[in-house]
Structures are given as C-alpha cells and as structure tokens.
C-alpha cells in the first residue's frame, strides 16, 4: 500500500509579542527602536518613508536588540517641525504599521492625536506613546482606557522657560497625567512616564532632568528616557545629530543608573551592547 504523501505543514502563526510588563521584568533595560515615517524628523527625516524601507529598518533594529519599535508619522521635534492633520498622519502610517506588527515585536504608536492612536491600537500596535502625556487631546485617555493597553505619558511644554525648576515642572505634569489616567480608568500598572528630554526644555534643563531622574521614582511608575541624538549633546560637544552616538550612550547609561527602565534610541545595536555590558559589569561586583 502506497503511503499518502504528507501535506505541507501550515505556516506557524506569528508569536504573540510579550506584554510590556514582561519586558520590564527583565534585568536589562528595554531598548525601544525609533522608526520615523516622516519627511522632517530632526535626525532621520525622509530615510524610511517607503513602506519597504520602514519594514526593513524595523527588522534590522529587532535583529540588533530592539524589544519595542516606536513608530511616529508626525515629527514632534521642538524646533522647525510642521504639524500635520490626522488624515496625513494616518496616510503615512497605514502602509507601514501592519508590516511592522507582523515582525512579532511590540509596536508603540508615537502620536498626540487620539484618532491616530485609536486606529493604530486597533490594527496591532500594543502601546500608545503620547508625547503630551494625555493632556493635549482630551479623547486620548479614553482611547487608551477602552483598549486596556499600556500608555507612555511624556512631559512636554509649548516653550522652554529657563527660569523654572524643570524637575518640579515635570513632577507636576506627571501628577496631572496620572490624575487624567485614573479618571479615565487606565490601570496604574499600564502607565510609563517619560520626562521628555529635549522637549520644552533648555539644553541645561535636559541635563538636569537626567541627573535628577531618581526624583520621579516617588510616582511609582517605570521611566522611559529618550536622549538619542538630542540637541543638548551638541552644547557639550558640537556635533550634527547623526554624530552624537557617544553622547547618546553616555546619557542613556546615566539614565539607567538613575532608574530608567526603557531607553528609546536610534542606534539600537550600540545602545543594546552598551546596556548589556554595563549590566554585566555591575553583576560582576
């Protein structure tokens, strides 16, 4: 009797990405890779506009150690960015998101618009990254609460004020964000706080924020820091954005020493290596 030919195995479904709480429980800080599908981001504007370029770059960052991919379709750089409509933001995002989600690594949507966040979260994004900490779009907190997904609340200001105590300002902002989140029904364990290095701050205030990062620990939420290629580095050592790797690594290692649990970076391979080596050295004491 002739054996029946075996049927080809069905392709395995992509593995479900680990939830944020699992990533945060690991000993080495989480690396969040930056994917800007914008023409005017301060460092890589225009580099990944084509969907195939965006997907390839996301895959490259995952191979280099990124455990979250943060997709932004509107530049939020403090100087010179042009606001875009939700329709334009979605036009840039829609050809890219599904392909990046399919890579199997958690995706966060970097936006200040509830409409954009809602669409992205409904199409596979696992985290909302609100660059105005739930305080700019009044619908954002409700969008996040309804989907029971994590949110990153970033500190921001319309303009820097060198006269203020920036740490006090960040604390007060975070307290407002946490109050808004609680009223909307967002579980506290789903909230990450980002002090917004470079946003609404002078270069000196950005450095003060990094130096005093531990003061935000009293709020009881994990901290994300994104100092990658930021302008304050150039005030110490004059340099163009893509030549600020050394300064970015220095800032991020100090941030981790001061309590950061997620590092948002352009240069994923170097950042991942630096964090892992630093952890190995600490563990060798």
Automatic annotation (TrEMBL):
Coiled coil: none annotated. Keywords: Folate biosynthesis, Magnesium, Metal-binding, Transferase. Its cofactor is Mg(2+). It comes from the Bacteria. One of its GO terms (biological process) is tetrahydrofolate biosynthetic process. Pathway: Cofactor biosynthesis; tetrahydrofolate biosynthesis; 7,8-dihydrofolate from 2-amino-4-hydroxy-6-hydroxymethyl-7,8-dihydropteridine diphosphate and 4-aminobenzoate: step 1/2. Residues 1-20 are annotated as: Disordered. GO terms for molecular function: dihydropteroate synthase activity; metal ion binding. One of its GO terms (cellular component) is cytosol. The keyword Cell membrane does not apply. It catalyses: (7,8-dihydropterin-6-yl)methyl diphosphate + 4-aminobenzoate = 7,8-dihydropteroate + diphosphate. InterPro entries: DHP_synth-like, DHP_synth_dom, Dihydropteroate_synth-like_sf, Pterin-binding_dom. It holds the Pfam family Pterin_bind. Residues 29-276 form the Pterin-binding domain. Belongs to the DHPS family. PANTHER family: FOLATE SYNTHESIS PROTEINS (PTHR20941), FOLIC ACID SYNTHESIS PROTEIN FOL1 (PTHR20941:SF1). Catalyzes the condensation of para-aminobenzoate (pABA) with 6-hydroxymethyl-7,8-dihydropterin diphosphate (DHPt-PP) to form 7,8-dihydropteroate (H2Pte), the immediate precursor of folate derivatives. This is Dihydropteroate synthase. It comes from Rhodopseudomonas pentothenatexigens.
